[in-house]
């Protein structure tokens, strides 16, 4: 019995190792296979991403290379000129950058008057912070020094709607030598007004037998000539409840050095008739007198729209006689900056509003007022 048992044992000892393999190598092979698969997929993804990036960069670089060659080439092509031309125009300040002005012109051969209709302006160019302006237009003729028309000031816009008409008396034989001049400026309350653009239109080149309405290109602004009659600064305040109008004459500047002892007359007019007047004391030996004198007038609220305020600078001339240097008209019949000052005073009741004004020729203000003579009362015994 021992023989068979030993043979069986020997047979088991030989066959047991071949029938049951060790578990370690199988799991190692699986782990290696999984790792190899992951690495293979990662490598494929990296290759695909790199190809996509190269194609993308290649498409973007080609236009840049063409632009660089076109711009740097000494012999510019049509494409390079198209690319750089807008910048060159902006640097040169072409007329298209100063805006446009719409005007209507008409000549009345009966009354010999040129009627200028200021319609609107568009695309004005502002230089200050915020890229906005307070524009107004100033119209004059080259043959009529001192006679001009100013529109109302329009706040915070580069496309003002003027809709104003002014007239100038021009004999027919002088039309060919007359040039219409329009300046568009930005209003500044306490500093020089900023020029925005200008238009010079020779009337001899225009057919005035018909009413003309056109858009005109504004040219670059020139230097606004200083007023030969000087400037006056004063303050206005109106209190509706008490009906008190206060005028504070502050100072003047730019007066002719040949004038002596300047002073200011303040005149209030009601329904085109002289009503009340005051005057400052004179200042000796200066072309820039400082007054700082206040005057009050009682004007009921029901009459404030019928009142005209005239400030006139007087001085002794070379003949030692008092003469009027210039005037400023405020009220409902004023125009330009004086009208805006008057409107600001009414819109901001109780608040004092100060502003500089250019002096106008006395005759021009008198024509605007169209003064009626005082009523002559009968004297006793007549």
Automatic annotation (TrEMBL):
Biased composition regions of type Polar residues, renumbered to the chain: 72-82
GO molecular function: calcium ion binding; calcium-dependent phospholipid binding; clathrin binding; phosphatidylserine binding; SNARE binding
Protein name listed in UniProt: Synaptotagmin-8
Position of the signal peptide: none
Xref: InterPro entries: C2_dom, C2_domain_sf, Synaptotagmin
Region feature (Disordered): 61-82
Keywords (A to Z) from UniProt: Cell membrane, Cytoplasmic vesicle, Membrane, Repeat, Signal-anchor, Transmembrane, Transmembrane helix
Family annotation (Pfam families): C2
Cellular compartments annotated: Cell membrane; Cytoplasmic vesicle, Secretory vesicle, Acrosome
A GO cellular-component term linked to this record: dense core granule
């Amino acid at each position: 019995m021992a023989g068979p048992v030993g043979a069986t044992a020997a047979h088991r000892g030989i066959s047991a190792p071949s029938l049951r393999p060790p578990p370690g190598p199988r799991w190692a092979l699986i782990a290696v296979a999984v790792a190899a698969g992951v690495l293979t997929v990662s490598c494929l993804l990296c290759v695909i991403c790199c190809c996509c990036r190269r194609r993308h960069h290649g498409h973007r670089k080609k236009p840049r290379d063409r632009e660089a060659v076109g711009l740097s080439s000494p012999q510019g092509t049509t494409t390079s000129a198209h690319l750089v031309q807008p910048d060159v125009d902006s640097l040169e300040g072409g007329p298209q950058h100063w805006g446009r002005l719409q005007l209507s012109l008409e000549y009345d051969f009966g009354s010999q008057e040129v009627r200028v209709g200021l319609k609107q302006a568009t695309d004005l160019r502002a230089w200050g912070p915020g890229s906005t302006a307070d524009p107004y237009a100033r119209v004059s003729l080259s043959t009529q020094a001192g006679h001009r028309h100013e529109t109302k000031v329009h706040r915070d816009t580069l496309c003002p709607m003027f809709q104003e008409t002014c007239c100038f008396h021009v004999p027919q034989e002088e039309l060919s030598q007359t040039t219409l001049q329009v300046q568009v400026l930005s209003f500044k309350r306490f500093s020089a007004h900023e020029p925005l653009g200008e238009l010079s239109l020779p009337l001899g080149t225009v057919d005035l037998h018909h009413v003309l309405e056109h858009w005109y290109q504004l040219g670059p602004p020139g230097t606004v000539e200083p007023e030969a009659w000087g400037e006056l600064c004063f303050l206005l305040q109106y209190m509706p409840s008490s009906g008190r109008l206060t005028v504070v004459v502050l100072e003047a500047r730019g007066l002719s050095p040949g004038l002596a002892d300047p002073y200011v007359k303040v005149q209030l007019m009601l329904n085109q008739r002289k009503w009340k007047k005051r005057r400052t004391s004179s200042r000796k030996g200066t072309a820039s007198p400082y007054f700082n004198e206040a005057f009050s007038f009682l004007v009921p609220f029901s009459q404030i729209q019928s009142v005209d305020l005239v400030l006139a600078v007087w001085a002794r001339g070379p003949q030692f006689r008092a003469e009027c240097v210039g005037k400023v008209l405020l009220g409902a019949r004023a125009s330009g900056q004086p009208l805006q000052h008057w409107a600001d005073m009414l819109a901001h009741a109780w608040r004092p509003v100060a502003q500089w004004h250019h002096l106008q020729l006395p005759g021009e203000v008198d024509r605007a007022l169209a003064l009626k003579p005082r009523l002559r009362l009968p004297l006793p015994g007549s």
